[in-house]
Amino acid sequence: MPSYHLAIDLGASGGRVALGRLEGERLEVEVLHRFPNGPVELPGGLYWDVLGLWREVGHGLSLAAERASGPIASLGVDSWGVDFALLDEYGLLMDGLRHYRDPRTEGQMERAFARMSREEIYRTTGLQFMPINSLYQLLATEERSPGVLARAQHFLMVPDLLHYWLTGRAVCERTNASTTQLFDPTQGDWAWGLIQAMGLPQAMLGPLVEPGSRLGPLLPPWASRWGLRDAEVIAPGTHDTASAVAAIPAEGEGWAYISSGTWSLVGLETAQPHITPQTLALNLTNEAGVHGTTRLLKNVMGLWILQECRRSWGDPEWPQLYAEAEAVCPRGSLGAYIDPDHPSFLHAGSDMPQRVAVYCERTAQPLPQGRGAVVRCVLESLALKYRWVLEGLERVTGQTLHTLHVVGGGSQIDLLNRLIAAATGRAVIAGPVEATLMGNLLVQAEGCGVLEPQQRRRVVAASSTLRRYAPEHFSDWITPYMRFAELIAGQN
């Protein structure tokens, strides 16, 4: 008999509620409801519309009972990392849900280093240094709103908050907790010594649970309202990348992945954390994966830059933009590159195309002329940055990475996939697009006892259409990569 599960996936630009039907080693995924997500600017800063997200999630769940031809066994939420909610003693939100692009974290990294050295923070957490990390958000809260942290009874990541509203149980799932820079990946627990050194309250940090943990039934009002009386809430890998990596249709060794969306997460799955001076120098991150694995990776800015460019151009269709980029330079390289992770590209703004031009001008490169050239510049720069990260991963792990799995929304961009294969010199396997949903659903199925962990990737491979790209014309990218690497080195 098939089993039915519901995945709630919240991304930085949109959310989905999807129904999964698992029978044998085949998974069918139907997206029931899509909705936009984005920042809301208030006088006090930048926020997420968490109440609007809750409303949309509820609407999606209300559609589920009508679509499934059998009882729905479980549901679970995944989302982006680093952002969190603080709840008071009554379980009420204390400051809404802050957006990681809020500029309040500027200067907070230096404030943290005054309390504990950069090297010691990395030895403790193994996490990539980014100003958006939860640690620096908490220090900003402490500085700007004295007393708020002392009153907080619960610190919950975004999926933990929704799970709390669904079940009344306040816990933190491990994969998302590992994005905070408050987590010790070696011990698998909160980094209590660091938390104390930073002067942060320990009481607000609740118990950690593993992916696949059963959190309990829906609260009666929700079960009745949505017709989901048999459904249990099960924590998937609540960090969306953890769910996506859980659904990589890979075999054997020698493979890496790119979870490609607003952010690009470039990494590989390891049995233990890699926390060394070499990984610190590369600013690699060690995040918790499903079933005790580690996601050794680097966050690359991803499609965010293009999303902001597109917005500034009046939201033309994506296929048109990619066709223009293809026409600008049918073969070889455009010859102008950016570091996608340069701080100038972090924040939102309608001037993103101008920021690309300013970067090229400041680094003595030809200016991209027209939007097709801007798109091409960004895509080529992403492909070259992926190669830079992959070579660093090979050095610190001693592995030879010959295959690159690209999952998520970016896996649909044919031009980008071809550029990645050519620039990295590695075979690219693109798909599934819905890796995050599939990983979420299948980890839930494991928690329900209807799927064995060793079956998960076989199910994904059997249920997906994958596209393969050979690394053609790799020699044409040797000189562009050398120039790109010099560009990166000049900024460090």
UniProtKB/TrEMBL annotation:
Keyword RNA-binding attached: no
Instruction: List residues of the Carbohydrate kinase FGGY N-terminal domain.
Output: 4-245
Show where the Carbohydrate kinase FGGY C-terminal domain sits. Answer: 256-445
Q: Please give one Gene Ontology molecular function term for this protein.
A: ATP binding
Which Enzyme Commission number(s) are on file for it?
2.7.1.5
Entries under InterPro entries matching the protein: ATPase_NBD, Carb_kinase_FGGY, FGGY_C, FGGY_Carb_Kinase, FGGY_N, Rhamnulokinase
Q: Which UniProt keywords apply?
A: ATP-binding, Kinase, Nucleotide-binding, Rhamnose metabolism, Transferase
Biological process GO terms, please? rhamnose catabolic process
Instruction: Give the main EC class.
Output: transferase
Family (UniProt): Belongs to the FGGY kinase family.
* Protein's name in the database: L-Rhamnulokinase
Species name = Meiothermus granaticius NBRC 107808
Q: Which gene encodes it?
A: rhaB
